[in-house]
Design goal:
Elements (H helix, E strand, L loop, with lengths): L2 H16 L9 H7 L11 E4 L4 H4 L3 H11 L6 E6 L2 E6 L1 H14 L14 E5 L14 H16 L3 E5 L7 H13 L2 H7 L1 H17 L2 H14 L3 H25 L16 H10 L3 E4 L2 E4 L9 E4 L7 H16 L3 E5 L5 H13 L8 E4 L4 E3 L14 H19 L6 H18 L7 E3 L1 H4 L7 H18 L15 H23 L3 H20 L7 H24 L9
Parallel strand pairs: 4-5, 4-9, 9-10, 11-12
Antiparallel strand pairs: 1-3, 2-3, 6-7, 7-8
Helix pairs in contact: 1-2, 5-19, 5-21, 7-9, 7-10, 8-9, 10-11, 13-14, 15-16, 18-20, 18-21, 19-20, 19-21, 20-21
């Protein structure tokens, strides 16, 4: 039940009744945004600051609050009290408990889902792994933030298009071919797969420190790829096939899929019309042999489009990709889930699109995020210090299996639960903080069953399931909703009631951690309720109400876990 909307609507009606001649009074939507939760529960469940009305009513806020409190006549919803210019609302706990639980259960696993996105399309560019490199932990954030946002927008009724914009173009692939031609064999690479390619890549950079001419050879091989040289393309496409086969295992473990794998190379034959459009619009200028778009008036460096050797660059392909996506998908938003280091790049790309006259450029959004380290160690593929994600996930599953063996030796499906918990712990750790923050992954934190972690929330879901299995054997009467009037139940109910707001806010701010935080808060509130109250052993009508609250909590926890990409074990 959306109590904020209910109280805002009643307050709007109250203002109209009390001050029928007043102009400029806020409507329900604005009132809803002004409602706050008092710092002290004794001051009420929600509070409306009457200061916003002082100018329109030409009255002091305390007098307005006093008048509104005296005129309030909705005891079935809440009682209202005035305090220091605030109108404080104390919910009718019995009705609030009943209405919230029934509303959640009536949603049948879709609490917070909506049709707000009906007829709208969101493109999401995320993961974007690099060809000839193994999937490493540095790609975890882009993959899981994008995956979670896709689920959130799906949940709100949008059509979503998940795009894995493969990093399959650029000088680095010339360097890879150069390294392969100098030091590799086909048998070696076929046997070693992407590991062999990474070893060649690392060797190239070490050798290039002593022999800088290798860099020129690498650039020459990439030019051959661009020019369609058969040998260069055959090797390049082989590298790509090996990489995607390796990455598929990781995506399968994470439960991630895409609607498109159109990477940089997909746009090579589509760039010329875009470049010509830049010329025709007078946006291209020559600078030291290269062609750029001048962004001086925007306080940015020029956006490089064509290098002096005739090769294109990331910006060229991203501009082309944006035009293609709008032409193909007619998106209302196009989100780029890419690390914050690329902020300038995307500001340049979006500004160039604006200068080209595309009104939809304003709908392109860089969803930036911080960097990830492992147990305090910075990661680098070039230096050979990256952590491969499939290795990390397998280790997480093994560690979870050992913990489960210790805590629940009698559990039947230990392997399946270990997979759900281990992988969930990694994903949760990545999505637990605001996305812009840097993350230092720690085994001790991630696999803690007692802290604010994935295993903790999953265990709470399993606890709810256990209660409900036991309740299924009981014959319970109609619930006594007064049994949910205690502080612990009410705290849980408020969190359940607010969950739809959180989902919408997470979509608006492109911030999955809001859902992570909300589902963690719900798990903590349920556990406090669980420890303070006998759920099944009390008077039958009381037990019936508490069982229904448990069912509502389970439904929302499961939904929240799904939206951030975690599974919800029923036994742990």
């Amino acid at each position: 039940m959306d109590m904020l909307t209910t109280i805002a609507g009643l307050t709007e009606d109250l203002l109209k009744e009390t001050y029928p001649e007043a102009q400029g009074l806020p409507a329900a939507d604005e009132l809803r945004n002004l409602l706050a939760v008092p710092p002290n529960p004794e001051m009420g469940d929600y509070a409306f600051p009457c200061f916003r009305l002082a100018k329109a009513l030409r009255m002091a806020p305390p007098k307005i609050a006093d008048a509104l409190a005296a005129a309030w006549h909705h005891p079935e919803t809440a009682r209202a009290e005035a305090l220091n210019g605030y109108l404080n609302f104390f919910l009718n706990r019995v009705n609030f408990g009943r209405d919230t639980v029934l509303a959640v259960l009536a949603a049948d696993g879709k609490w917070g889902a909506s049709t707000r996105g009906e007829g709208k399309t969101v493109c999401l560019d995320y993961s974007s792994i690099n060809i000839a490199k193994r999937f490493h932990i540095g790609h975890l954030s882009t993959t899981m933030i994008g995956h979670s946002l896709k689920r959130i927008f799906d949940y709100l009724g949008y059509r979503t298009v998940g795009i894995n914009h493969l990093g399959d173009w650029g000088t680095q692939f010339g360097k890879m071919i150069c390294a392969y031609k100098l030091w590799g064999t086909r048998e070696q690479v076929e046997k070693g797969g992407v590991n062999a390619l990474e070893a060649l890549y690392v060797r190239f950079h070490k050798e290039a420190e002593a022999d800088p001419t290798l860099e020129d050879q690498g650039r020459a091989w990439f030019k051959r790829i661009e020019d369609g040289d058969p040998e260069a393309l055959e090797i390049f496409n082989w590298f790509k096939e090996l990489t995607l086969k390796d990455a598929a295992r990781v995506y399968d473990l994470l439960g991630v899929s895409f609607d498109s794998y159109a990477g940089e190379s997909f746009y090579i034959d589509k760039m010329e019309p875009v470049i010509q459009s830049l010329r025709d619009k007078g946006l291209l200028t020559q600078s030291e042999g290269a062609w750029v778009v001048d962004l001086t008036e925007d306080n940015m460096p020029p956006c490089l489009i064509i290098k002096k050797d005739g090769a294109t660059i990331y910006a060229t392909r991203d501009i082309t990709a944006a035009v293609y996506r709008q032409d193909t998908y007619h998106f209302d938003k196009c989100l780029y889930v890419v690390a914050y280091q690329q902020d300038l790049h995307f500001r340049q790309v979006f500004r160039v699109l604006e200068k080209m006259g595309y009104p939809w450029a304003k709908d392109c959004v860089h969803v930036s995020f911080g960097m990830i380290s492992f147990e305090g160690q910075a990661l680098s593929t070039r230096k050979g210090t990256s952590i491969h994600l499939d290795d990390l996930l397998r280790e997480a599953v093994d560690k979870a299996r050992a913990i489960i063996e210790e805590k629940s030796p009698g559990l039947e499906n230990k392997d399946e639960v270990a997979r759900q918990v281990g992988i969930g712990a990694v994903v949760y750790a990545d999505l637990s903080a605001n996305r812009i923050k840097d993350i230092d992954f720690s085994w001790e934190r991630a696999l803690n069953f007692d802290g604010e972690t994935g295993p903790y929330v999953q265990y709470t879901h399993a606890r709810c399931c256990s209660v409900l299995r036991k309740a299924a054997d009981l014959s319970l009467p109609e619930p006594d909703w007064a049994a949910l009037s205690d502080d612990e139940a009410q705290a849980l109910l408020r969190l359940l009631g607010r969950f739809p707001d959180v989902v919408n806010e997470a979509a608006d701010k492109y911030e999955p951690s809001m859902v992570t935080r909300a589902v963690t808060d719900i798990a903590q509130a349920y556990n406090r309720f669980y420890y303070e109250h006998r759920i099944l052993d009390d008077e039958p009508a009381t037990a019936a109400a508490r069982v229904l609250l448990t069912r509502a909590a389970r439904e929302v926890i499961r939904t929240g876990l799904f939206l951030i990409g975690l599974e919800a074990p029923e036994r742990m």
